[in-house]
Amino acid sequence: MQVRKAVIPAAGLGTRFLPITKAVPKELLPILDRPMLQYVVEEAAEAGVEEVIVVTARGKESIASYFQPRPDLEARLAEAGSADLLESIRHVSTLADVSFVIQEEPLGLGHAVLTARNAVGHEPFVVILPDDIVHHQPGVISQMLEVSAQHQAGVIAVEQVPWETIHNYGVVDAEERGARTHFIKQLVEKPAREDAPSNLSIVGRYILPPEIFDCLERTPPGARGEIQLTDGIQLLLEQQDVYAYEFLGTRYDGGAPMGLLRASLEFGMAREDTGDAVRALVREIAGQLEQD
Ligand code: G1P
Questions:
Q1: Protein residue with its CA nearest to atom 5 in ligand 1
Q2: From the CB of 232, is ligand 1 less than 6 Å away?
Q3: Which atom in ligand 1 lies closest to the alpha carbon of residue 223?
Q4: Angle subtended at Cα 156 by Cα 151 and Cα 158, rounded to the nearest 5 degrees
Q5: H/E element holding 203?
Q6: What DSSP state is assigned to residue 220?
Q7: How many Å apart are CA 197 and CA 93, to the nearest integer?
């Protein structure tokens, strides 16, 4: 599948980050020094995506500001000779063509994706959930595009999780078909542990055909009374094959404070410009703990 567009659902309330999400959209909280949203837009751009459609909600307008150019700030940074900072703010607005659609009511992830229907049109697209952050080169979307091309089908990212956490996720029942790749027979959103068909949980990366939109139109509210993307994909299975792919890389839960803290430390250690300083910081803290 040739994929040019990405949908990024970013309309949620960010309850696990209250109270800060009263004023700042969760998607703009930083991992080290960049908003988590930027990591996923970079991942999409790296995979060849040209257009990013962010599904947002009223009160989250600062997400749009983040991607707009700021000529006044650029002029000041140029004057001050801050070449690196100038490059960093320009980089954001050149990553992809970013547009926005508003989800008027919080009716679920499936409904958020459906809100982007007109913006996507009749072509395959990717969905990226910005609080699932994965550290790997190549990025997860690039890895999934290869699997999609190989099978000429939609692909969902999955990973094995401990059984006691399975109720937090969408789960697939699938048959192995080659390295890291599984043919999906069934999907269930947030099953109780005893009802989960496996411990392969869905991670927020999907390559989907446009037929998903008709399926989402027909999807009744499911888990938590919301229209679930997982349930829409279950309907899609009646017409098309969909594969699950166990990606290479580590997933961080950017939707929760501890996940974001861990991602900041690990990304900081991996980055050339911050690696030494972050390692020194972690050692210092570990040393203090030893003395306690
Ligand atoms: C969503 C999806 C779920 C998936 C999860 C991954 O759930 O509905 O299938 O496993 O993202 O992060 P949420 O975390 O929005 O409740």
A1: 169
A2: no
A3: 8
A4: 120
A5: strand 200-208
A6: P
A7: 43
pLDDT digit of tens for each residue in the chain (292 aa)? 579 999 999 999 999 999 999 999 999 999 999 999 999 999 999 999 999 999 999 999 999 999 999 999 999 999 999 999 999 999 988 999 999 999 999 999 999 999 999 999 999 999 999 999 998 999 999 999 999 999 999 999 999 999 999 999 999 999 999 889 999 999 999 999 999 999 999 999 999 999 999 999 999 999 999 999 999 999 999 999 999 999 999 999 999 999 999 999 999 999 999 999 999 999 999 999 998 8
Please report the atom of ligand 1 found closest to the CA of residue 168: 16
How far is 191 from 132, CA to CA, in rounded Å? 20
Is any atom of ligand 1 closer than 6 Å to the C-beta of 109?
yes
Instruction: Verify whether ligand 1 is closer than 6 Å to residue 189 (CB atom).
Output: yes
Residue 154 per-residue DSSP state: E
Residue to mutate, 17, 113, 128, 129, ligand 1, most ligand atoms under 8 Å from C-beta: 129
154 φ/ψ angles, rounded to the nearest 5 degrees: -70, 155
Chain length of the chain: 292
Using CA atoms, how far apart are residues 155 and 139, in angstroms rounded to an integer?
A: 15
Return the exposure string of 65-87: e unless at least 16 CB atoms fall within 10 Å of the residue's CB, then b.
ebbeeeeeeeeebeeeeeeeebe
State pTM to two decimals. Answer: 0.96
What is the residue type of 136? H
* Single-letter code of the amino acid located at 139: G
Distance 138 CA to ligand 1 centre (A): 23
Peptide bond into 19 cis (omega under 30): yes
- Helix ranges (DSSP H) in the chain: 36-46, 62-67, 71-79, 83-94, 109-115, 117-120, 140-151, 212-217, 229-236, 257-270, 275-291
